[in-house]
Amino acid sequence: MARTYTVSCSGVTVANQAVTLVFINPATGCGFEVLRVLVSQRTTVVPPASTMTPIQLNSQVTAFPTLTSATPAPHAIGAPVSQIVGGTSGAAGTCGVNASAEGAGAKTVILADTFNVLNGFLWVPTPDERIVCEAGAAAGFGVHLPVAPILLTGWTCSVTYVEAG
């Protein structure tokens, strides 16, 4: 039976640089399909600023970002833990959030967009548009802000995926 999990961060302060919000690298025996990506910013500015922010969904090869470890949350109560575990190095079979360094690995942009921070970004692909990371792939999947956002605080991001394998 396929298992669904979400990796997320909430209310984080990002570095004043381009930053990967969530990064997931498939395990040797376990790939995944991305079902949904959500990015938002809860402003501390009154009135809130209406700004456009670029975003990229991408793959990245070694060297990976330096991350804060995050544990995937299962969508089924009582489900086994994900085969992808929290980690800080972006290594195979790990995931993390809010990169403090991007790593020198080449990024390949799969989807580029721009969103208004007042509305947030929600990507729910049709089945044919889903991003698939095969088990043992040499690259991981990341949600990346390619330029430093105007507001650095209050960022939330989640990636929902289903394990394959």
Shape: globular
Q: Report the radius of gyration as a whole number of Å.
A: 15 Å
Number of strands: 13
Helix content: under 10%
Beta-strand portion reads over 45%
Can you write the helix and strand succession as a string? EEEEEEEEEEEEE
The total domain count is 1
Give the class-level CATH name: Mainly Beta
CATH architecture: Sandwich
Number of helices: 0
The overall pLDDT average reads: 94
CATH topology: Jelly Rolls
Distance separating the two termini = 10 Å
Which stretches of 5+ consecutive residues score pLDDT under 50?
Answer: none
Structural class: mainly beta
Q: Mind describing the biggest β-sheet?
A: 7 strands, mixed
Oligomer: single chain
Describe this structure in words.
It is a single chain. The protein is globular, with a radius of gyration of 15 Å. The protein is 0% helix and 51% strand. By secondary structure, it is mostly beta strands. It has a single domain, classed as Sandwich (Jelly Rolls), CATH 2.60.120. Strands 2, 4, 5, 7, 8, 9 and 12 form a seven-stranded mixed sheet that branches. The chain is built from no helices and 13 strands.
In short:
The protein has 165 residues and is mainly β. Helices cover 0% and strands 51% of the residues.
Topology:
Layout: E1 4-12, E2 19-24, E3 31-41, E4 52-61, E5 66-69, E6 73-74, E7 85-86, E8 94-101, E9 107-116, E10 121-123, E11 132-133, E12 139-145, E13 155-164
Parallel strand pairs: 7-8
Antiparallel strand pairs: 1-6, 1-13, 2-8, 2-12, 3-10, 3-11, 3-13, 4-9, 4-12, 5-8
